[in-house]
Amino acid sequence: MIGHLLLAAYAAHFAPAAPGVCADAVEIPPEAEAWRVALYSPGVTAPPPAPAPALAAYRAAYLEARKKDWADVCRYRADNERLIALPAAERRVVFMGDSITEGWSYGDRSLFVRGWINRGISGQTTPQMLVRFPGDVLALKPAVVHIMAGTNDIAGNTGPVTLEMIQANLAAMATLAKANGIRVVMAATPPATKFVWLPDLAPAPRIAALNAWIKAYAAREGFEFVDYGTVWATAEGGMKPQFTFDGAHPNADGYVAIHKLAREAIERALH
Length: 271
Hints:
The protein is about 45% helix and about 10% strand. By secondary structure, it is an alpha/beta fold.
């Protein structure tokens, strides 16, 4: 009953908008937000019990919204408008990515200090990021963009994809940034030997191949490259158990472990 009421509330919240006009983003329910905070508490290596009705209602509303806004360009629209009106120091660095970037703000809040902005969205692939790149990165006119992606492409979240297609999307984002005077940090796709939502897939070889390309491309174009796998990865290409709660997503300890690497990569790009 509670789930049905929540779903109805979120459906009402997402009344149809005029074509091409952003509606309000789907907001995560308080119960689900509290679960997410608990998920990224220090020492967590297995997900805590989830508030099933609230999460189900949120997911249903979110999936319905994606039918009108495939790339979720509306997600950060209001905050982008707020930031654009502020001095440049308030939007100096933007992190573009998927859930591994989005969760970073929970796992290591100390990284996202004044002017360091998180624009990660759970589940996203590189074509979705490319679509929202103008609004979520270019419009903010940061000094640096940190791009980390590829996990969900390899998982096929938005359909079949080749490594060359992922590479083209990453290169397109980096090229757009460079053309707009934004310095680029390209991060390796995080290590994983399994995805819990796709247990039959063995992603490690494709991740390794993609990362070899990212490293070479960054060197060729003069971009900074950072590989968090040097801290996170096992010899088999997975994520060390102490740094993850599901084998693919870092936990709080995982984010804290790469804090220095991330900050140094950004500082190199800035200076």
